[in-house]
Automatic annotation (TrEMBL):
Keywords: Membrane, Transmembrane, Transmembrane helix. The keyword Transmembrane helix applies. The chain crosses the membrane at residues 23-43, 50-70, 82-101, 113-133, 139-162, 169-189, 195-218, 230-252. This is ZIP family zinc transporter.
Length: 254
């Protein structure tokens, strides 16, 4: 994500008077929304054991948090002159707050709390991605965000699997609209430099907690033959994490 801001420099692509952003940015944000829906649809239609979907979601969310958001937050914090401890403090605080939310109420509703927290965190994350699209129309960045969005849609659908259909649709709609909101808002009012590191770190903490919830969900969905089913769960987490990490590395190399 940070490569988008670096590619754009310190100025906006759009009109400095705060008019609507270029059509390319809006089209890119719309494609990101479609990729999110495609990822969610793939998660719903995934064949085989249902535990593999939250297991894959766990790997995806963890890689996004550790290899994408946290490095971006540290780089932005250094540029803004913030102390080194600010980023881990914000990430650990949001992780702890989401953990407390998941533990409130009936224990049977922890997955629900984790799913809603992940949905909210992804919405904020994708708002920042929309801001990146407002700052650059690079094909490499747009392609990376499309792959990124499909993975996020899969993870979101997996974590909201126990929610009623209408509520799931609402959160998915929010996840699809937040990049468009990021494009529009950033074109009119750029994000303050001092706010972005805290925002990225907080979202990283939320997604890390969501990854933990997803892995626990996959663990509880295993059938009785535990030894047989442990291998595919581990493989799903590993493959999803490796695939997402490779996508991020390829993007950084471009």
């Amino acid at each position: 994500m940070l490569c988008a801001f670096e590619a754009a420099g310190t100025h906006l692509v759009g009109d400095s008077a705060g008019l609507l952003p270029p059509a390319a940015s809006l089209v890119a944000a719309s494609l990101v929304a479609l990729a999110t829906v495609a990822g969610a649809w793939a998660a719903r239609r995934a064949p085989g054991p249902t535990m593999l979907v939250p297991a894959a979601a766990s790997g995806i969310l963890l890689v996004i948090a550790v290899f994408d958001l946290l490095p971006d937050a540290w780089d932005e914090a250094a540029e803004a002159g913030l102390p080194p401890w600010a980023v881990p403090f914000a990430a650990l605080t949001s992780f702890a707050l989401m953990g407390a939310l998941a533990r409130t109420g009936c224990p049977c509703r922890r997955d629900r709390a984790g799913g809603i927290g992940a949905a909210a965190g992804l919405a904020v994350h994708r708002f920042v991605e929309g801001a990146a699209l407002a700052l650059t129309t690079s094909i490499a960045v747009m392609t990376a965000l499309l792959v990124h969005a499909a993975a996020e849609g899969l993870a979101l659908a997996a974590l909201l699997g126990a929610q009623p259909g209408r509520r799931t649709a609402c959160w998915l709609t929010l996840a699809c609209l937040s990049p468009l909101a990021g494009v529009l808002v950033t074109s009119a009012v750029p994000l303050p430099d001092g706010l972005l590191p805290f925002l990225l770190a907080a979202v990283a903490g939320v997604l890390t907690q969501a990854a933990r919830v997803a892995l626990g969900l996959a663990h509880r969905q295993r059938p009785a033959e535990r030894r047989v089913r442990t291998v595919p769960v581990t493989a799903a987490v590993t493959l999803a994490a490796v695939a997402t990490a490779l996508a991020l590395l390829i993007t950084a190399g471009r």
